[in-house]
Design brief:
Distance between the termini: 64 Å
Oligomer: single chain
Shape: elongated
Length: 158
């Protein structure tokens, strides 16, 4: 078993393995290293993405949760966990998207928040109005039209 001095070294090696479609080897390196560096958020993030890539969803979510628990102010971790949870835990995903957007103000995070609100048939008018500051009306209309409960958004907003 190879032992890496830093979690970053292991993550970088795992990235090389992933680039050559050797995900199993990447998981070996990351799992060995997490035993030593269990409080390293970057390591859990890399494990989460590698498990996601290999369609091991449960393990992916577990590690993304751990990354976010270690670094709760990391908007990217919140956003990615939201994406992982949006189908099975939509309310939690909404909270994560909102947190990510508040922390960083990234329009992509806001877009996901609005889409999750629409999918959950929650009131999304304010979110869509805010989104209109970043995206053209055609994008807002297309997003709204994906969900029948919000078809009147554009009519109400004129």
């Amino acid at each position: 078993m190879a032992v890496f001095g830093t979690a970053r070294t292991a993550v970088e090696l795992a990235e090389l393995y992933k680039e050559t479609n050797r995900d199993t080897k990447a998981l070996e390196v990351l799992n060995q290293t997490v035993l030593i560096h269990s409080t390293n958020a970057l390591l859990h993030h890399s494990l989460a993405l590698t498990y996601w890539r290999t369609q091991q969803v449960s393990q992916s979510i577990t590690h993304m949760r751990q990354a976010l628990e270690i670094e709760p102010q990391n908007a990217q971790y919140a956003y990615l966990l939201g994406l992982m949870l949006v189908e099975n835990e939509p309310k939690k995903a909404l909270t994560l998207f909102e947190s990510a957007y508040i922390q960083q103000g990234n329009p992509q995070y806001l877009y996901s928040l609005c889409e999750a609100q629409l999918a959950a048939t929650e009131q999304a008018k304010n979110c869509l109005t805010q989104l209109g500051k970043y995206y053209p009306e055609t994008v807002i209309t297309a997003l709204s039209n994906k969900y029948p409960t919000t078809r009147n958004f554009n009519e109400n907003n004129k």
